[in-house]
Amino acid sequence: MDSAPVVTLQPIVLMGVSGSGKSTVGEALAAASGRVFIDGDDLHPAANKEKQAAGIALTDDDRWPWLRRIGERLAVGDGVIVACSSLKRAYRDLLREYAPETYFALLSGSRELLEARLAGRHHEFMPATLLGSQLATLEPLGADERGGVFDIARPADELVEGIRAALATGQPIDIGAPAAGDIIC
């Protein structure tokens, strides 16, 4: 008796700085695709949350254990969607060690839009004052990384459809990405 092949769904990481809409898009994408959504912030250890709440940016040493927890979750094989800033290439490389097929959707927008979004919300442990350090840390996706850039000035439903289209075609895609020479973030 032949058994059906095991199907694993490609995990998705919604990446970007604070205020880029990772959680909003993640929840909408999960609802549209029947997948599980996890906010990576929920996987931070208490010490990281306390440090950020005090307005202190995390160091790489602070992030490695957190990123390993996320990597372990990506490796489950259920196509989970995780909101995780993944600001540096090294962070994404670590996540790919756990789940090489991970798709990274970079949610990107102007500094002005990000600041406006952050001004209108209160985050438990991520104050708006850390936006500058995040922007300085952000390393855009490399040409050899599986993923795409999505302009957060577009409505969440358009971003969801763009990400789903990119996954369906297996091709890199930029949804509303800036033209060459434009400055993002």
Short description:
It contains 7 helices and 6 strands, in the order βαβααβαβααβαβ. It is 41% helix and 13% strand. It is globular and about 40 Å long.
Describe this structure in words.
Helix content is 41%, strand content 13%. It has 185 residues and is α/β, with parallel strands linked by helices. Strand 5 (147-151), helix 7 and strand 6 (173-175) form a beta-alpha-beta unit. Helix 1 (22-33) packs across helix 7 (156-169) and helix 3 (60-74) packs parallel to helix 4 (89-98). The protein starts with 11 loop residues before the first strand and ends in a 10-residue tail after the last strand.
Q: What spatial order of strands do you see in the largest sheet?
A: 2-3-1-4-5-6
- The averaged pLDDT comes out at 84
Number of helices: 7
Shape, please?
Answer: globular
Which percent range fits the helix content?
40-55%
Poorly predicted tracts of residues: 177-185
Report the count of strand segments: 6
| Order of helical and strand elements | EHEHHEHEHHEHE
Q: What is the structural class? A: alpha/beta
Radius of gyration from the alpha-carbon trace, in angstroms: 16 Å
Task: Report the sheet-strand fraction.
Answer: 5-15%
Oligomer: single chain
Distance between the termini: 55 Å
Largest sheet: 6 strands, parallel
